[in-house]
Every structure is written in structure tokens, then in C-alpha cells.
Amino acid sequence: MFPTLLVLISMATLGCALHFPIGPEFLLKKGPINNRIVGGEDTPIETIPWQVSLQSQGWHYCGGVIYSKNIIITAAHCVHNNDSKILDSEIVDVRVGSSTSDNGGSVIKVAKITVHDHYIHYVYKNDTPKSQYDIALILLSSPLEMGPTVKAIPLAESVPNDGAVVRVSGWGYTETGEAPLHLKSVYVNIVNLEKCARVNKIESTKAKICAASPRKDSCNGDSGGPLTYRSKLVGIVSFGPEICGDPSQPGVYTDVVELRQWIDVEATKLSSN
Ligand code: ARG
Prior knowledge:
Blueprint: H1 3-14, H2 24-27, E1 41-42, E2 51-56, E3 59-66, E4 71-74, E5 93-96, E6 106-115, E7 120-122, E8 130-132, E9 136-140, E10 165-170, E11 184-191, H3 193-199, E12 208-212, E13 226-229, E14 232-239, E15 251-255, H4 260-271
Antiparallel strand pairs: 1-11, 2-3, 2-5, 3-4, 4-9, 5-6, 6-9, 7-8, 10-11, 10-13, 11-12, 12-15, 13-14, 14-15
Bound molecules: arginine.
The site of arginine has 18 residues, from strand 14.
């Protein structure tokens, strides 16, 4: 199948595509406030210089995080197609060092993608897609030039306590129902994991953390992007309820602290071959 179509279909299924030429109507279920980030603010890339945009054919579709000069961390579902196959590296580009998703900074080709072995993505009828071990690493084809707009972020050593204020960012849908061209970020609170698993009907709490705040949330198109606590990476945007910003149903993030070792080991392997 034509590769762009594959990405489109994949992201539509995941509810995660943005800016693709066929428009959001195709990608999102209709509804008044479905699939929209709420409460975010425009944020310059200098404030979040580890944020990147994953793009296909020039269109932003997922976020990512700079781990080192040649490795990007993202969500596994951001690098899979509808047939659960890992995307060809040729169809994914990474824009770094820009507050705007459609210009500025530099666009770098992907050399290789590694996905967590235990990654599973599942969709039950009439429910939002869910994942486990939703994490992947991208090896860039050329090393990043670090500077004020391009920086790696250290991984956190411990999960922040319930209630801690964390920040999430990206070019995902906003409360107006549009995919913003300017990077946004929002502060949310860590939510008790057991409670989050119950309300989101998640079977396993493994490698997950949750965060929510009234009318503030990540949303579709933010996947793969950073959840940070005191400028350290604690989570990767993974999935959430149909309605973004509903505080009774927190957003779900891949737990970077639990997967620290996996990230370090796989990043070393990836960058050495
Ligand atoms: N899977 C979505 C994406 O690709 C992330 C959804 C987050 N939703 C939420 N309510 N926090 O962008």
C-alpha cells in the first residue's frame, strides 16, 4: 500500500494523526469536545528544547523527545501502521529546534527504529485505543547540533508523587478543535495509578503513569511527546479518554522511570550499530 496512506490509516485508528491533507473529520469521531487538548499555552521551543515533531510528508503527526544527539524517544504507536508493522524509517522525519511544526529548526531523516518487545496496542469496540509498553527509540541519520533550541532531557530517577505538578507539551489538538502550528504546553497533576486504571478500564498498571487536571490535558497529536517533572522526563504521551481534559478520566503516559534501563540499554545498542 502507498506508504502515506498506511500512516494515515494507522494514525486514524489510533486517533493520533494531525495535519494530514484529508483533514480531521476523517480522523476523529464527531462530537462536541471530543479529542481536543484544553488549557494549554503557546510555549517557545527554548522552554522545552527536547520537544520534537514526528512528521510524514511534511505533516506533524506525533511528538517525540530528544534523549541524546542521535536518539529520539517516542511512543511505539507513533511508529506503527494499522497492520501493527513498524513504519519504514524512510517515511518518518523528525523536526527539531522549532516552535512551529511546519517550518524552522531542522528536519532530520530517521535511520532506524526500535520498539519495546512487550509493546501491545489494543482496541475494544466502542472504546478508545489502549497500549502497553508504548515506547520506541528512533536513531537519527545524522547527529543533532545542540543549542538553545535543541537539547537532550535527562530521565527522571523516581516517579513524582500523586498530585505532583507535571508538564506536557506538543502540537496536539486544542480546545478549539484545531491542530495548532505553535507548540503548546500545559501543567497537569499526577493521579493515583490504581484509580486511573479503574476509571480508564486498563487491566495492567505496568509501565504507566497518569495525569489530569480539570480542562487541562494532552490530546491527539501529542502522543510520543514529553511529560516532565522539574525538567526531567517522567512520561511519554500514550493514550487517554475520548474527551481530552475530563478530570475524571486521566491521560495515560508511558512510565519512563520504570523503563529507564530499557531506554539506556537499547539507546546504546542503537547508536553503536
Ligand atoms: N493517542 C493520542 C495521540 O496520539 C494521545 C491521546 C492523549 N489523550 C488524552 N486524553 N490525554 O496523540
